[in-house]
Amino acid sequence: MKDGLIGFIYSAAAVAIVGAGYYSLLWSSDDKKNSENKTTIEDKRKSRINKDYKSKDNDVIVTCSIIGRKDDERIRIWDNTYLLDKQSNFRSYLKHVKGITIYPEWTTLRKEETMNFVLFFEKLPSNCIIFDLVEDIPESGGFYVKDIVRNQTDRYSIDV
C-alpha cells in the first residue's frame, strides 16, 4: 500500500509539474503575442511621423506660432493630429513635424517666448474649401484652429 501511495504522489507531482509547465508555456505564448501586438501598434504609431521625411509638393504645410502664457509652459503635438475638411469630414493626417516634440516628450516654453513649429499633413481633397486643425487628444489643452480658408499653395501660418 505504501509503495502504491508513493507512486501516486510521484505521478500527481509529475502531472502538476507538467501542468505548470504547460500553463507557463501558454502564458509565455500569450505574453509573446501581446508583446508582438504592442510592438505592431507602436510601430504603426511611429510610422506615421517620419523624422527623415522630405516634403512633397502635395503636402499641406502649416507653420504654427505660439507665445508662452506662463513660465515653464510645456507643449507638444500628438501624432493623431489632423486637418478636417469641413465639407466632406475627410481627415488629412500629420506626417512630419519640425520644431516641436511629439507625445510623450515635452518642449518647455518661457513666458512671452515665441515658438514656431511646422506641421506637414497629407494632402486635402481637391474640393476642400475650409478646414479645421484638430489635435484630438485624451486630455485638455489640445490645439484646435477652426475655419482655416484653403488657398492655392496649401501653405498656412497660424497662431495657436
**Category from helices, strands and their pairing:** alpha+beta
Shape: globular
User: What are the secondary-structure elements, in order, as H or E?
Assistant: HEEEEEEEEE
Q: Kindly state the number of beta strands.
A: 9
Q: What about the largest sheet?
A: 7 strands, mixed
Task: For this entry, give a set of tags.
160 residues, alpha+beta, two-stranded antiparallel sheet, 1 helix, 31% strand, globular
How would you summarize the topology of this molecule?
Elements: H1 2-48, E1 60-67, E2 73-75, E3 82-85, E4 91-98, E5 107-109, E6 114-121, E7 130-134, E8 144-149, E9 155-159
Parallel strand pairs: 1-9
Antiparallel strand pairs: 1-6, 2-5, 3-4, 3-7, 4-6, 7-8
What does this structure look like?
- The chain is α+β, with helices and mostly antiparallel strands and 160 residues long.
- It contains 1 helix and 9 strands.
- The model is unreliable at 5-47 (pLDDT under 50).
- The chain is globular, with a radius of gyration of 27 Å.
- The protein has 2 domains: 1-48; 60-159.
- The protein has one helix at 2-48; strands at residues 60-67, 73-75, 82-85, 91-98, 107-109, 114-121, 130-134, 144-149, 155-159.
- A 7-stranded mixed beta sheet has the order 8-7-3-4-6-1-9, with no helix packed on it. Strands 2-5 form a two-stranded antiparallel ribbon.
